[in-house]
Design a protein that fits this description.
heterodimer, A: alpha/beta, seven-stranded mixed beta sheet, three-stranded antiparallel beta sheet, 13% strand, globular, B: alpha/beta, 22% helix
Chain lengths: 384, 358
């Protein structure tokens, strides 16, 4: 059995260019960027180069890039940092998010209600359409921030971020997007859209884990949520992870350079997987089929099968995929994204295949064959 | 030997060693932990109910053995088939045995269904019981360690399931299993025995009844303690707290030691009598299950009416929908709701749920 990794939306291997770029910073160039001697200056230079490289790749200016330690931290800083601007003024913050956000956004937004704030969750239909009425209503109440993800991590659904950003802009409201799954898969040119805050992480684009950045466009106020130093404009105090920032900047640069080519390649592979699964297993649902979807994610629903069984079965066949959000012990919880899109229709097993740089047509062929075996066996056992 | 086997791993030492032995024997072993109920009802943004130590232990052992391990959520079925039945039996004045119920109706059937779905050739557990497979027929026998023998809990296993089962600990003693676990470096080697009912964390089943029955349910309401002639001797605090043969919680002031002889849910009475009144000549058994053909009437067998009770000689007097087993010697505290496991020598033939003493 030759194991096949189809869980690139969970994480990716660090690419050679990234580890090469990081290596000197893990040995000789170990200085603290805040130090004023030559070691410090060298480290500071590397950090600022990383900032410039990331900024150029994303179409923003270098001071607009703040390095943080991962996507969750970036999302939290965007939501809670905006809410804190309201709180410091003595106002009760309103936070507006979509129902299919990552938990890092959703739970941060919900936490605002614990300290007097409010949170409005905008519904998303199975075709990816937002509940525009409730978005409009919410925008009129001057929220502290509106956050909508660019590409949903579970289904691959793409929200109309540019349109929402423009709506928010017209209403004078700050807009944040979680672009974690978008970078490297779809064109992310932040300079061309009125997006005020954007979250990117390194480990989904062949960079190191524990790295991330928050783009804070010029003029957008964010209040710190961590304290103890002046680093990253005081928004992410603490000695900078220079190696991580450098690794991530290389990853962002290469991902954006390759995005167009990779998107075409992955779309074709996803189509191949989708077509063979539909041909062999007629009864499956393609989640978000009617919506605009990112190239690398295919989420299917299998009505007659048990989620735990399908995931275990695929694992035993050497196919690495994921289902809904899994909790620590490995038990499977119902996905809030599918509940939002499909309500009670979201039954049976859900499997998310996510494709990446290492995925070949042969892999897709083998994975589809394994999935058909596993699902047929699970369906047979379920009906006996 | 070869083939894929799904082994139930609770995180305890027994099932850990069972899995290890199967690995040694060359099977393609897959570990499974059944999540039977929510272990903590703490509210919060992310439920902590999945962090149960047993699941963690099973995962650790699986990592040590280098086998895949999965958690299967069977909470709904377990609650319906085991916990609800447990509560209902007490509410009806009987004394249930949830482990028998679980093994008969939930655990092995669920495991087999998952095993089939995962392309397994068989399923296994860490029970101390022997199984022999011969062409066309499989039979269960008491475990070699009579101290630990768990065959009593398995009389309700569907017969057609037996050919697919393996019990790797059947020939071992508990000390042998522990030393085997130590040799393998399993973290669970010295874990203490679990004796309590798994879903009664406090050790007192009445806590669970109070949680799951309506507050004014008659089983939890005070009622009369009466003697065999129906004379009222005192009051009890709810008949669900009593089981046949019990001496505790009856109060004092009797001229001789008194024991529970019967629990009558319809009148809320707890009937007490002297020790000799607890003996019965036989037992009527329902919900029969036989691993092979039903034993014929008149056959002499051994019957065990309680876990860890010695098997006693009896004769099958009638055997149809229910069976009547007459003991060679009268037996103390035949308890409705408990199980009567029927053996021939060491071989487990099947059994049933005790309906009433005869």
């Amino acid at each position: 059995m030759n194991p096949i990794y189809l869980d690139y939306a969970a994480t990716t291997p660090v690419r050679d260019e990234v580890s090469e770029a990081m290596r000197p910073l893990l040995s000789d160039e170990f200085g603290n960027p805040s130090s004023r001697h030559r070691w410090g200056r060298a480290a500071s230079a590397r950090l600022e180069e990383a900032r410039e490289r990331s900024a150029a790749a994303l179409g923003v200016s270098p001071p607009e890039v703040l390095f943080v330690r991962g996507g969750t931290e970036s999302d939290n800083l965007a939501i809670l940092g905006r809410a804190a601007v309201w709180s410091t003024r003595g106002d009760e913050p309103l936070v507006v998010v979509s129902a299919i956000e990552h938990k890092a956004v959703l739970e941060a937004a919900e936490s605002v209600t614990g300290s007097g704030g409010k949170c409005v969750v905008v519904g998303v239909g199975r075709d990816g359409a937002l509940d525009v009425d409730s978005l409009h209503t919410a925008l009129q109440q001057q929220p502290a921030v509106v956050s909508m993800m660019w590409v949903n991590n579970e289904v691959g659904l793409m929200l109309p971020v540019t349109e929402v950003a423009e709506m928010a802009h017209d209403a004078g409201v700050v807009f944040h997007t979680d672009a974690v799954q978008a970078v490297g898969k779809v064109p992310v040119r932040l300079g061309e859209t009125p997006i005020d805050l954007a979250t990117v992480t390194g480990h989904k684009i062949y960079g190191p884990k524990g790295t991330g950045l928050l783009v804070v466009r010029h003029g957008t106020e964010v209040a710190p949520r961590m304290f103890g130093g002046g680093q990253e404009k005081s928004l992410r105090p603490g000695t900078e992870d220079v190696a991580g920032a450098v690794g991530m900047s290389v990853a962002v640069e290469l991902a954006t350079l390759e995005a167009e080519f990779e998107a075409r390649r992955l779309t074709a592979l996803r189509k191949q997987l989708e077509d063979s699964l539909v041909a062999e297993l007629g009864s499956i649902t393609i989640h978000g089929a009617e919506a605009k979807r990112a190239p690398h994610i295919l989420s299917i629903g299998i009505p007659q099968a048990d989620q735990e069984i399908v995931l275990a079965g695929l694992d035993l066949e050497g196919i690495a995929v994921s289902g809904g959000s899994a909790c620590d012990s490995g038990a499977v919880a119902k996905s809030h994204v599918l509940l939002a899109m499909y309500g009670d229709d979201a039954r049976g097993a859900t499997v998310r295949f996510s494709l990446g740089r290492g995925t070949t047509s042969d892999d897709i062929h083998a994975a589809a064959a394994a999935a058909v075996t596993v699902v047929r066996r699970a369906e047979a056992a379920g009906s006996s | 030997m070869s083939g894929r086997v799904l082994v139930a791993m609770s995180g305890g030492v027994d099932s850990s060693v069972a899995a290890a032995l199967l690995v040694e024997q060359g099977y393609d072993v897959v570990g499974a932990t059944m999540k039977t109920f929510c272990y903590s009802e703490k509210a919060g943004p992310s439920k902590t109910c999945c962090g149960l130590d047993g699941i963690m232990d099973a995962q650790r052992v699986a990592r040590t053995l280098g086998i895949p391990h999965y958690v299967f959520d069977v909470e709904e079925a377990f609650t319906r088939d085991v916990i609800d039945d447990f509560v209902e039996e007490y509410a009806n004045g009987r004394t249930p045995n949830p482990c028998v119920r679980c093994n008969s109706n939930t655990k092995f059937k669920d495991l087999l269904a998952r095993g089939r779905a995962l392309g397994c050739d068989g399923i296994a557990s860490g029970h101390y019981v022997r199984i022999e497979h011969e062409a066309g027929a499989s039979a269960l026998f008491r475990g070699a360690d009579h101290e630990k023998d768990q065959s009593y809990f398995l009389w309700g296993l569907p017969g057609d399931l037996l050919p697919l089962l393996q019990f790797p600990l059947g020939d071992l003693t508990k000390p042998e299993v522990r030393s085997c676990a130590r040799e393998l470096g399993l973290t669970t080697a010295d874990k203490p025995e679990s004796q309590e009912i798994c879903f009664v964390p406090t050790g007192d089943y009445r806590d669970l009844l109070e949680k799951r029955l309506a507050p004014s349910h008659p089983a939890l309401e005070p009622g009369p303690i009466v003697d065999l002639a129906g004379r009222m001797l005192g009051r009890h605090a709810g008949y669900a707290g009593y089981t046949v043969g019990q001496r505790k919680r009856l109060g004092g002031g009797f001229s001789e030691p008194m024991f529970v002889v019967a629990v009558r849910a319809d009148t809320r009475e707890v009937v007490v009598g002297p020790s000799e009144a607890c003996f019965s000549a036989g037992v009527e058994v329902g919900e029969l299950n036989w691993h092979g053909a039903a034993p014929e009437e008149g056959r002499e067998i051994k019957v065990q009416i309680r876990y860890r009770a010695p098997p006693v000689s009896a004769t099958i007097e009638a055997c149809g929908e229910s069976a009547r087993l007459m003991f060679e010697e009268p037996q103390r505290a035949v308890t409705p709701g408990q199980s009567a496991a029927v053996y021939e020598g060491e071989r487990l033939l099947g059994g049933g749920r005790i309906l009433v003493s005869v």
